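Supplementary Methods, section 5.1.

A reviewer requested that the exact input to the structure prediction be made available. We therefore reproduce it here, unchanged from the version used in the analyses.
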Amino acid sequence: MVKTIFVDKKLKIKPNLTDYSKLYKSFEWSKAQKEITLLPNGKINMAFNVLDEQALGSKKNKIALFWEGEKNESKKFTFFELYLLANQFGNFLKKLKVKKGERVFFFLPRIPELYFGFLGTLKIGAVGGTLFPAFGSEALYDRLKNSGAKILITNKELLPRLESISHKLPDLKKIILTENLGNLLREFSVKLKALPMEPEDPSFMLYTSATGDTPVSGIVIPHKAILQQKLTAKWVLDLKDEDTYWCTADPGWVTGVVYGLLAPWSLGISQLIFSGRFTPERWYELMEKYRISVFYTAPTALRMLQVKEKIIKNYDLSSLRHLSTVGEALPPDIFDWVLKNFKIPAHDTWWQTETGAMMIVNYPCLPIKPGSMGKPIPGIKAVIVDEKGKELKDKKEGNLAFKPNWPAKMNKIWKNEKLYKSYFSHGLYLSGDQAFRDKDGYYWFSGRKSEIIKTSGERVGTFEVESVLNRYPAVLEAAVIGKPDKLRGEIIKAFVVLKPTLKRSKILETKLQEYVKSHLAGHAYPREIDFVKSLPKNKSGKIMRRLLKNKELGIPIGDISTLEE
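The structure derived from this sequence is encoded token-by-token as follows.
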């Protein structure tokens, strides 16, 4: 029996069903357009809505960014200060002859230069891109090569990872170091008007792991996405003018860009950015110091906080009034832990890089069924369908799909029209996730259909990890699966066939793990490695990961009629 959190007098959780029901029935995206300011002739620029409106209005002197570094160093920027810096950065790019539609990428930790630089890029009509700072040279090469990035902003610490690949990137004209950026920007004007863009013009692109013959997919999000991003931050994160907000996601991923940069500032909200390493003590210190009132994080992070549950009492977290989660399904046990220790419920949210903004969520105004994804936002039509696109009845598991009419939806996959079209069938966007809907209209996540592993909230493609493992001199071939893990959701497990005469060893296992870390990313290495004599393949030579996974989990391996002799 699934319990539902309706009303708890002590915690004052009182849903308002009427607000959601009325809005959902009457909502139209065309009418909601009034929520954002358009430029002349119906044009738009996301950076204008995010930054200029605040900096040139009543919130000019309000703190937009509280920044905290690894060594307790801190800075703060008003909306107007960020606006001036973004303008100078945009003018700097124009001096470098960056034109509308050209790509400018940021390979940086969470430092202020990333934030104002990203907005300055969008303001001149260029396409912004972010790269996770843990990426190794192979992961960087795949993304920079595919995107054709013209300019890359990084720092001295991360620069060595580019040295082995920069000569293979003919489109990359300049690498700019942030250590020199302050002096460079002083030469440029603080005046810059946002370039009017068509609503469908690309604003930013983010890379996700792919399946098939390509290791990555460049997901392109249009300028008009800001409407949905702004409204969901208002409806779901419940952001209000007096809040200080903290989204713990890195801007190398979509949550860190959309809800750690764009959406909160489009509402004029003050937010904290922390560039240091995670420890429960540090996070609690920051929540207390900045009086964080709205918190958006991953279930894995909450589970890591749970490890040191007893220290919560040492901190004053009374400012926290709303908490939401993202990146993976929120387990009921973590929901219970949050409710017990933070004295507020956790509101899970479901969306993807490809959707550009939240889609199915747990609202502040609705009852929560722990473990459920929640309900669709107004303007979103969600359905559960079978393989032929036929809508299924309640409680029947199938493909989670949507009517593709929402403004934040990706409008292309860079240089891969075939892959983009594969997301759409029978007039629907197919999410690739399996789910079911209950009789009350709540959606429940069942699992991922494709070969994407979600570990600690990060998406990792099997193809991407296997490609790196297969380049190691001792490896003949490798296959990778996701293995359920209580802490991380899934861990990466590799099955490795060694070249003849080589022997398995713990030392070799460690070397393989370090190799993947250095060439791909720190989170993308296999935490478990089995050395095997051969890998199961079908008659066309394709590795049958299903058999590996089923055997690992101790479940029937199913049909093996196509298995190679």
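Confidence is low (pLDDT under 50) at residues 5-13. These observations are discussed further in the main text.
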